[in-house]
Amino acid sequence: MGSQHYFKRLRKFFFLRLSMSKWWSSKLIRPTLVRMAGVKLGKNAHIGANVSFDTLGIKPRYDIGDNVTITMNCVLLIHGFEYVMGGKKWYAGVLTIGDNVFIGAGSIIVKPITIGSNVIIAAGSVVTKDIPDNSMVAGVPAKIIRKLE
User: Fold this and answer.
1) How many CB atoms lie within 10 A of CB 125?
2) Phi and psi angles of residue 130, each rounded to the nearest 5 degrees, phi first
3) pTM recorded for the entire structure
4) Third-level CATH fold of 2-147
5) Domain residues of the chain, as ranges?
6) Residue 138 and residue 127: Cα distance in Å, rounded?
7) Using CA atoms, how far apart are residues 103 and 97, in angstroms rounded to an integer?
8) CA–CA separation, 132 vs 147, rounded Å?
9) Which residues of 111-122 are buried (b: 16+ CB within 10 A; e: fewer)?
10) Where are the alpha helices (DSSP H) in the chain?
11) Are strands 101-103 and 119-121 parallel, antiparallel or unpaired?
12) Over the stretch 105-131, which tens digit does the pLDDT of each residue have?
């Protein structure tokens, strides 16, 4: 039973690692490879070169909407440790990204959160909290800098 879990993760890792190549089409090949790895990806997605999806955790998931652009060198993490009284606590969860979202180059999403629809995340931002619909965020950590209409 343990080896089956390992092989499922190995398959997912293989497709996600393959999708990171700069030689693939960001509108056709990369989204197909990401879907083959088990990521729920909406229509008309754009995945840039060297986008890293987290492959660790207990049943980690990605739920990515339609018309989402994730540009190059982004990191999407959905697991980690939280410090609580008496030590560390492991968490793994779901990263939900709404429709019509643009994630700028080099951005990092550091834990399972929800990003609303019609959101722009500026290049180099570090997202640590949920982002509401119709927002533009930037910075380290990312903060809302403007509401979009």
Assistant:
1) 23
2) -55, 145
3) 0.84
4) UDP N-Acetylglucosamine Acyltransferase; domain 1 (2.160.10)
5) 2-147
6) 8
7) 10
8) 9
9) bbbebbbbbbbb
10) 2-19, 29-36
11) parallel
12) 999 999 889 999 999 999 999 999 999
